[in-house]
Amino acid sequence: MSIDPKPNRQPEIGAFFQRDRSWHPPAFTPGYKTSVLRSPQKALLSLDNTISEITGPVFGHDMLGELDNDLIHNFAKPGESAIGERIIVYGRVLDERGKGVPGALLEFWQANAGGRYRHKKEGYIAALDPNFGGCGRTITDEDGSYAFRSIKPGPYPWPNGVNDWRPAHIHFSVFGHGFAQRLITQMYFEGDPLIWLCPIVRTIPDRAAVETLIAALDMQATIPMDARAYKFDIVLRGRRSSVFENRLEGN
Ligand SMILES: [Fe+2]
């Protein structure tokens, strides 16, 4: 990974807020079977942030390829494109105070329109699309905004219960301004009935928290005769040292 000599952000300094563990799903959720063996067996300890969490690598736009934010074309043969419903996913990366996070690295990966991943351990019978790889990346602008093009992924079955299906989703990895702002999450699509049946989604205790993971169809951002748009904002942890008002922004 190259380090951009002219970073497109001025990093803040200072420790981050502690994670709100009542908002995030608990580690031990037996309905999601693999959580049983991989969840901690002992009580958690809370520690202050260290310098290795407060800091992190700086990402610049010059590390991106031309088609990194276009999953319709970034694996396709010249002149061809991926099969599926053409979509734009866009939004902003914000911190807990509602402030845009510029220079955040977003990486995303997803199944193809039939619900099949391009991965050697993938066993689902749906067909591969020779023109779809399923991953991409981008970096947020000065106000924390981002956008990429893709096709809408299909739902797929997975071996958890007898007949569990994942709703259509896109995986996101977000790297903000420090290792404490690393976030791995998933985005779902408005109106998908499988969201509320999914054992992974159901590990999230608060319905309002689930709703923050559902991208809304935004007809205003749609490109007519081309692609529909879905809006998805992502919230990372904020810096304690940057709170200068007597209330938290964005609440
Ligand atoms: Fe997935």
TrEMBL record:
Pfam families, sorted: Dioxygenase_C, PCDO_beta_N
PANTHER family per UniProt: DIOXYGENASE, PUTATIVE (AFU_ORTHOLOGUE AFUA_2G02910)-RELATED (PTHR33711), INTRADIOL RING-CLEAVAGE DIOXYGENASES DOMAIN-CONTAINING PROTEIN (PTHR33711:SF10)
Enzyme class: oxidoreductase
Organism: Aminobacter aganoensis
NCBIfam families per UniProt: protocat_beta (TIGR02422)
Coiled coil: none
Domain Intradiol ring-cleavage dioxygenases: 89-117
Gene3D superfamilies: Aromatic compound dioxygenase (2.60.130.10)
Name of the protein this chain belongs to: Protocatechuate 3,4-dioxygenase beta subunit
InterPro entries xrefs: Intradiol_dOase_C (IPR000627), Intradiol_dOase_core (IPR015889), Intradiol_RC_Dioxygenase (IPR050770), PCDO_beta_N (IPR024756), Protocat_dOase_b (IPR012785)
EC number: 1.13.11.3
Family, as annotated: Belongs to the intradiol ring-cleavage dioxygenase family.
GO biological process annotation, one example: 3,4-dihydroxybenzoate catabolic process
Alphabetized UniProt keyword annotations: Dioxygenase, Oxidoreductase
MF GO annotations: ferric iron binding; protocatechuate 3,4-dioxygenase activity
